[in-house]
Amino acid sequence: MRPSKRAPDELRKVSLERAVARYAEGSCLVKFGDTHVLCTASLEERGPPWLRGTGRGWVTAEYSMLPRATLERTRREVTSGRPSGRTHEIQRLIGRSLRAVVDLSAIGERQIVIDCDVLQADGGTRTAAITGAWVALHDCLAWMKARSMVQGEALKDHVAAVSCGIFAGTPVLDLDYAEDSAAETDANFVITGSGGLVEVQGTAEGKPFSVEELMTLVELARAGTAKLVDLQKMAVM
C-alpha cells in the first residue's frame, strides 16, 4: 500500500490554473498534490548573443524554491552568490524539454524565459514545473501570435513530465516525498504528446534495477504523461 493510498498507476490530484500572474505574457499555477509551482513565461525582444543574425529565437528556464517550500527552511541561493548544482540541472532540464517542442525559427530573434518557482514541495517539483511550464509557454506564444509576432505554428507538440519509481518492491507512478525519499529506484520521464521521449533520468538508490523493471516504468510514465497532456489540452481550450 502506498502512503497516499493511491493505486500504483494513479497520479496525484493535478490542476493547471492559467493567467495567475498579471504582468507575464503567460503563466500557470500547477499543482501535483501538495507540490505547487508557479510558472511564468516572459518575452524578451532580444535573443542570446550567440544567435544574433541567425533568425532563430530561444527558450530558456530558471528554477528556484521558496525558503519555506519545504518542511524546514532552506537558505535562499542568492545569499550564497550562485545557484546550486541541483538548480542548474533542473533549469537546464526544463529548458531542453520545452525547446524540444518549439520551432525556434518561428519566434524570430527573441527569447522566452520560463521562471518556475516552487511554492510548496512534496516530491516531483521538476516534473510539475515542466508540465506547468508548457501551459505558460503556450499562452506566451498565443499572446505573440495575436500581435503577429509569430510566423506559422511555433508550438509543435505538448510536453509533460512525471516521476516513476520502485517503492516497496512495486513500480509506482508520480512519487510524493514519502515515496521518493524511500524508493529503491527513482526516475523522471519527459515525454511529448505524440509519445516521444525527450529525457529519461533513472537512478537505483540501492539495489540495481533490471531492464524489465525499466520498461515497466516507461509504460507507467507514458500512461501518466498521456493523462497530463489531456489536462493540458483541457486547460488551454
TrEMBL record:
It catalyses: tRNA(n+1) + phosphate = tRNA(n) + a ribonucleoside 5'-diphosphate. The keyword Transmembrane helix does not apply. CDD domains: RNase_PH_bact. Its EC number is 2.7.7.56. GO terms for molecular function: 3'-5'-RNA exonuclease activity; tRNA binding; tRNA nucleotidyltransferase activity. One of its GO terms (biological process) is tRNA processing. Residues 10-140, 159-223 form the Exoribonuclease phosphorolytic domain. Keywords: Nucleotidyltransferase, RNA-binding, rRNA processing, Transferase, tRNA processing, tRNA-binding. PROSITE patterns: RIBONUCLEASE_PH (PS01277). The keyword Lipid metabolism does not apply. SUPFAM superfamilies: Ribonuclease PH domain 2-like (SSF55666), Ribosomal protein S5 domain 2-like (SSF54211). Coiled coil: none annotated. Phosphate binds at R86, G124, T125, R126. Homohexameric ring arranged as a trimer of dimers. Phosphorolytic 3'-5' exoribonuclease that plays an important role in tRNA 3'-end maturation. Removes nucleotide residues following the 3'-CCA terminus of tRNAs; can also add nucleotides to the ends of RNA molecules by using nucleoside diphosphates as substrates, but this may not be physiologically important. Probably plays a role in initiation of 16S rRNA degradation (leading to ribosome degradation) during starvation. HAMAP family: RNase_PH. Belongs to the RNase PH family. NCBIfam families: RNasePH. This is Ribonuclease PH. It comes from Chelatococcus daeguensis. The gene is rph.
